[in-house]
Amino acid sequence: MKKVTEIVMPQLAESLVSATIDRWLKQPGDVIDMYEPICEILTDKVNAELPSTIQGTMIKILVGAGETVPVGTPVCLIEFEEEGVEDASHAPSAGGAAGAAFAAASPGAGSGERAAVRMQGAAGQTQGDGDDSMRHRFSPAVQQLAVQHNVNLSYVNGTGLGGRITRKDVLAYVESSRSAKPASSGAASPSATGMPAMNSKEPVRSTGLHLSESPRIPKVEIEGQQLPGRSEYFIDVTPVRNAIARNMRQSVTEIPHAWMMMEVDVTNLVTLRNKLKEDFMKREGVNLTYLAFWVKAVVNAIKDFPIMNSVWAVDKIIVKRDIHIGLAVGTEDAVKVPVIKNADQKNIAGLAREIEDLARKTREGKLTLADMDGGTFTVNNTGSFGSILSYPIINYPQAAIVTFESIVKRPVVINDMIAVRSMANICLSLDHRILDGVICGRFLQRVKENLEGFTLETKLY
Amino acid sequence: MPKMDYIDAIRLAMKEEMERDEDVFVLGEDVGYKGGVFTTTKGLIDQFGEERVMDTPLAESAIVGAAIGAAMYGMKPIAEMQYSDFMFPATNQIISEAAKIRYRSNNDWNCPLVVRAPMGGGIFGGLYHSQSPESVFFGTPGLKIVAPYTAYDAKGLLKAAVRDPDPVLYFENKKCYKLVNGDVPEGDYIVPIGKSNVLREGDDITVISYSLPLHFIMEAAAELEEEGIHAHVLDLRTLQPLDKDGVLEAARRTGKVLIVHEDNKFGGIGGEVAAIIAEEMLYELDAPVMRLCGPDVPAMPINPPGEKFFMLNKDKVKEAMKRLAVF
């Protein structure tokens, strides 16, 4: 028995309210496997492929490439073969005009659950007025009743405004499942049948206060389009650009920044790296970059000054025990901050490998949300683009950010003699609510000591 | 059981109380020989004489002030304000004197005073004959405030007010005088102050109100019943002290609450009722608490379209009830 279900825009992150379809990988008529990517989506945090939640045939695309839709919006319709045969009397007859009527129930599910599923016509119109805007806003009464009666609200039909589930809907559902229970006892529960048809909407979360925070992405004109008689042109603000703008603005408006800089003699480190890098490349297949040493030096300094790894929470300061180092990685048109998790538990070789891995993923646009989540302190290798001094903006809501500038050979006075040494600057921006000059001075001094302490005896493993 | 008009129930209550207790007396403007501008006290002077039905000068502060003195002395005065709009010259006496006598004398003195005042609009009375003054007095502990809607309550609450040992403001609705008619049992009974009353049971929405708007609500509820919307209607009856338990019980019934009053919304009784619900039963709410009230303008306009705009009616109430029902 052929049935049709919809695939909805998933909630990829807590703060996500909408996403843009970049391009479709499947077209109507294509056969689709479970978990096979059907399209690519752009969000302001990450680009991702949307896997199919069901095996079947795509019959219609509802949201075209380039369109931005709210989370939870159906993006396409998939036709699938239903195992087992339901009695047809439950299928709605109203959809007949569209060629077929579809009951979206899973096999063996009780009639109460079947009635609760919102059904989908072939033409792509939801039954009723089609407004689902309140479908996932649950009133306190509804949530309380759901907990009390152990009801999964995704199975409850909403009769309220915008598809909202009312208190009475829950009560009616409880009543109907109670009366339906004897009949369907022994039947597998919907989640146990392995049929994702009913669950296609389940992973979508759209509750929570943060939802309204992301501003709508402004629609500007097409990239590079020249307007006659004008000496300027517009560039579309991409979701990523928008996110960068928002985060930067939030950081500089909320965090009182202060800044300091120290000079480091990295001559020994340069020697060490030059000695090891060929071998390391051969053995590990990974470039031994200075960044791995930078990160090691910072992580060890954070262990000595844990307050650097903290967050301002107005009435308290939250100090994080885990050290997850974010690495600012620039691309042509954006900057992303993938995170090295538990950086303090990794040696230099491990850091080098992970840095390489994250940098490659960033360049290829394959970072996942998990790669960018949970950073507690950020390191930026500004020297990689030739800077010798920079004033970084703190990666909100962290307490500080460190940059490493270009290594340059300079004449330096040592023991009243002039020597040529490899020198580099390290810069620190700090949240002055949490941190002051003295502690940060000590911290930077410790980073400096750690860096200058790398010698030919230093072990990578 | 005899049916009678709201106004007749009020008159009957005064008559019976004056017969029952000779300390009870009535004073006010034109309450004697004229029998009151609305005929509320008609016939009382013939039965009880001018010493117990006293015509007073046009001075509300003096009417209430004299009544307070008499009450502290042990009498049971019923002071009539011709319109509740005119009660403001007596506000000082009511709020600063009557409400505080028991408290400031550490229980040595009390003030068994009743102030009757016809409230509300819709009678083409304009700015100074249509006001709803309850919110002015609502926030004063020491006062009791009742606002009956049915003829039954009009009699029972007035009797309770007369027998109450503390000052009671009795807001009778002048539009209800002849509009509301209902069963009033013969004989003595009282309606307890501080108890709300369920006028109608339902499980879709809860409507909480007092005084005249209940008339529209009951009409609208009957029509909505045919559309499958079952409204639970609560008459507060007493505004001060509010029947918290009654409010919460009614609100819990449906989790969707609409509060209706003719007094303007801002600073009105509805805000306090909504706050009680928000404080006590957030987790049982199924919709934001709604209020339907008079507009926040200085007073009822005298022009007919203006008055119509200001006043609540069945259609306005029904629309609000429906909006809440579909939420």
Automatic annotation (TrEMBL), chain B:
UniProt KW Oxidoreductase keyword: yes
Keyword Mitochondrion among record annotations: no
GO molecular function: oxidoreductase activity
UniProtKB keywords: Oxidoreductase, Thiamine pyrophosphate
Domain Transketolase-like pyrimidine-binding: 4-179
A family per Pfam: Transketolase_C
Domain of life: Bacteria
Protein name per UniProt: Alpha-ketoacid dehydrogenase subunit beta
